[in-house]
Amino acid sequence: MTEAESHFLGKHLLNINDLTKDEILGLINTAKRFKEISERKIKKVPTLRGKTVVNLFFEPSTRTRTSFEIAGKRLSADVINISVKTSSLTKGESFKDTILNIAAMKPDAIVIRHSSSGAPLYASKIAGCSVINAGDGASSHPTQALLDLMTIADSNKNFENLNVSIIGDILHSRVARSNIAALNKLGANITLCAPPTLLPRAKNIFKAKITHKINEAVENADVIMMLRIQSERMEQGLFPSLREYSSYYCLNPKVMKNAKKDVIIMHPGPINRGVEISAEVADGEWSVILYQVTHGVAMRMAVLYLLCGGSE
User: Which of 92, 98, 88, 104 minimizes the C-alpha distance to 120?
Assistant: First the structure.
């Protein structure tokens, strides 16, 4: 175990801002070692045998919830998935009481996704076990940022002075916020591209260049991260129509003519083909989108391993 990994051990994982540059790099190195397990004929190791992980998701999720479940099971942990629709929350139980009751069953970790920013932080103060933020509101999604960084590193790109363009619904994206924070720590140059209505009003909260022209964002980028339009988080229309948005901000082969030949295309999913990214680009030679999904399992194995005492 490296010094950075050892320092991370025993804490919650709530926000990428809580991690140092060395801790981020240490997590990437740990996840690289776990990636090999998913390539084996028997994809299971006894590392977390006897440990219990509860997945508590208050929002729909396919990739993140399944990824945490597979990660825990490949480490031999007992993984419990709780669906909010079939829980006592539907009977009026509060978030606090739900966390206290789950914690009373003595799990080793609770993985929480919630629509309210700060819900995992609150849970970490009352649960008594490790809490992992699997996405809270528009605030933070630390494991997505970590798996994205692992994917960039796997593409043999150095973070220092790397040109990363993040394009799409920046305003509502917890993925963008976590990636911007992590990439800032690692020395990358960030460009944000979106319509003015899909950028935070206080644009100077991010250490990043701003543009509203996708061709300008794509040119000279080493990494392009596309984001989904999060209509479910919009109280009112922030642009005239998806068709008009697509005409200005869809990453398609015509736009890609301005890109570097060795650029990589990323997307946290789910993809809206033809809206923010065309099928040709999503499935094309530049895309590493499915590698992101593969790396998600390895990164979540690394996080569970370090938080649940797998080194013991």
Answer: 98
